[in-house]
């Protein structure tokens, strides 16, 4: 049983951190192998992930959305550096709450996050600039049905202490407006517990006429975080 005082100490992050993942990680979080290559994909809360850049170089059409994209590349790099130490301290002290088979060590994770940052920045400051849209949930600047699939990685549910239940419902409703299908991972709080918002959010989405379901994915890093939330309109 994880005690509150211990968990607060482990990840002392002061807000949602700009910590980004790579394409192969997104592919595992979201079971992306079933997504047609021509599908228009949205990465919401994309941050300094290299998913949009790497997916685009594989011929996919990805648009990333994050309030962070209003800043320039140097400021995003600075924000990454400012939070990196807290993330690493959190990972080291919460080491027992993760499965290390894939990554090996906190240091290896930092290396991968830095790779993602560099791939992201090269795209963001170069030819890919147009695919990065500065905007914030729960309001997205896209027409209804503009995208086939919206992904949201390591924002909703993970930061459930900062983002309340009403925010989650509004955000998921908006994601389901702009995309025919929505996938969210992980569904576990930063403190390692299953999100207490999840059952309430799923039942409110059902009341709105949406179809939320839990789907097991081929990835586990936070122990117990083995499912994504999929939301469809029919
Ligand atoms: C932990 S990062 C995850 C980045 C990426 N999705 C990944 O998994 O590698 C969370 C991102 O959510 C962004 N964010 C915070 N509030 C947001 C909001 N209301 N709407 C969209 N993005 C938001 C932050 O700026 C940050 O870049």
Query: For the residues shown, what is the average pLDDT?
Result: 94
Number of strands: 7
The main β sheet shows up as:
7 strands, mixed
CATH class: Alpha Beta
Query: What portion of residues belong to β-strands?
Result: 15-25%
First and last CA, distance = 39 Å
What would your notes on this structure say?
The chain contains 7 helices and 7 strands, in the order ααβαβααββαβαββ. With about 230 residues, it is α/β, with parallel strands linked by helices. The chain has a single domain, classed as 3-Layer(aba) Sandwich (Rossmann fold), CATH 3.40.50.150. Strands 3-2-1-4-5-7-6 form a 7-stranded mixed beta sheet, with helices on both faces. Helix 6 links the parallel strand 4 (about 145-155) and strand 5 (about 180-185). The longest helix is centred in the middle third of the chain and has 21 residues, at about 75-95. The protein starts with a helix and ends with a strand. S-adenosylmethionine (SAM) binds near residues 20, 67 and 153.
Descriptive terms for the model:
234 residues; 7-stranded mixed beta sheet; disordered N terminus; 7 helices; alpha/beta; Rossmann fold; binds S-adenosylmethionine
């Amino acid at each position: 049983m994880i005690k509150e005082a211990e968990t607060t100490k482990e990840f002392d992050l002061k807000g949602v951190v700009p910590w980004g993942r790579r394409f192969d990680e997104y592919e595992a979080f979201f079971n992306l192998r079933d997504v047609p290559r021509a599908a228009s994909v949205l990465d919401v809360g994309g941050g300094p992930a290299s998913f949009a850049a790497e997916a685009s170089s594989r011929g996919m059409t990805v648009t990333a959305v994050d309030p962070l994209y209003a800043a320039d590349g140097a400021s995003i790099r600075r924000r990454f550096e400012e939070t990196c130490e807290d993330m690493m301290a959190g990972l080291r002290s919460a080491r027992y709450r993760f499965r290390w088979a894939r990554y090996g060590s906190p240091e290896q994770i930092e290396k991968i996050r830095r790779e993602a940052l560099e791939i992201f920045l090269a795209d963001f400051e170069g030819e890919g600039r147009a695919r990065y849209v500065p905007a914030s949930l729960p309001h997205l600047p896209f027409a209804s049905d503009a995208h086939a699939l919206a992904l949201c990685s390591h924002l909703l549910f993970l930061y459930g202490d900062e983002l309340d239940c009403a925010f989650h419902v509004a955000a998921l409703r908006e994601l389901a407006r702009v995309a025919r299908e929505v996938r969210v991972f992980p569904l576990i709080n930063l403190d390692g517990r299953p999100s207490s918002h999840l059952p309430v959010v799923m039942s409110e989405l059902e009341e709105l006429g949406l179809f939320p379901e839990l789907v097991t994915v081929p990835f586990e890093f936070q122990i117990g975080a083995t499912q994504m939330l999929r939301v469809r309109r029919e």
